[in-house]
Amino acid sequence: MNAVLTTHFLIEKRMDSSFILNEIALLAIGMGIGILLNMLMVNNIKRIKKNQLDVDKMIKECVNNVAKLLESKKDINNEDIYIDTIPNENINNCPEFEDLDDFLEDSLEAAYNNAKNTLLSDTKYHISYLDMRKHQVSILKSMVEHINKVPTFIKQAQPLSYFLKKISYNFNEDNTAEELLEEINSLKEIYRKEKLPSTRVEFENRAILFQLLIDIEIFLKTKNDFILEFGSDIE
């Protein structure tokens, strides 16, 4: 509209009050039509909210599968086996990650498109929510990588497996993760009281489990930080 109005002034080569009022009227008509079309444009907010629920459902399943992956380690009684001699399994052992990544990208694209075509409603929440979940998925992948470095299931892994299942059970949009973060501190205290490892293999396994615990803490803090910023926008 600005280009059209500027062209009018260049062609007419005048700026008297009647001509200026005419151009202002044209500007108002153009803006009014634009706003009207924007209000009549199809709103994808229902689809975006459904996508959010589907993303949460998929991540919930992923968290539960990560817990099962940790429990699936077979007992290895040979203490001469070192971690770096155990072949790492491919992260694609959790194939749902690939589908989840694709679905997240499609959902984010829909949220951004809706933001571009929406005048009044606040779409920042939905975009930030999906970005937060995307970050959590990357942390889940890190968890899988760490678990795949553990050659056998040791007793110190049991509390983490149970805790991951608890996270999965309580996984939803409204959960602030505050109680789960408090439980993380309790887990740390439990591990501090554990007898120190006596072999290199035990030490390496414990180190991996500690890194897994840190990943879980970051996973929960990611959601908690989001709640602190957008808590009042949750519908």
Return the string of H and E elements.
Answer: HHHHHHHH
Query: Might you state the CATH topology name of the largest domain?
Result: Four Helix Bundle (Hemerythrin (Met), subunit A)
Tally of individual domains: 2
Based on CA atoms alone, the radius of gyration comes out at 27 Å
Strand content: under 5%
Examine the secondary-structure arrangement and name the CATH architecture of the largest domain: Up-down Bundle
Query: Quick check: average pLDDT?
Result: 80
Structural features, described:
This protein has 235 residues and is mostly helical. It folds into two domains: 2-40; 45-233, Putative aromatic acid exporter, C-terminal domain (Four Helix Bundle (Hemerythrin (Met), subunit A), Up-down Bundle), CATH 1.20.120. It has eight helices and no strands. It has helices spanning 2-12, 17-40, 45-71, 96-116, 124-147, 158-169, 178-192, 200-230. Helix 3 (45-71) packs antiparallel against helix 6 (158-169). It is rod-shaped, with a radius of gyration of 27 Å. Mean pLDDT is 80; it is low at 75-93.
Task: Provide a quick synopsis of the model.
The chain is an all-alpha fold and 235 residues long.
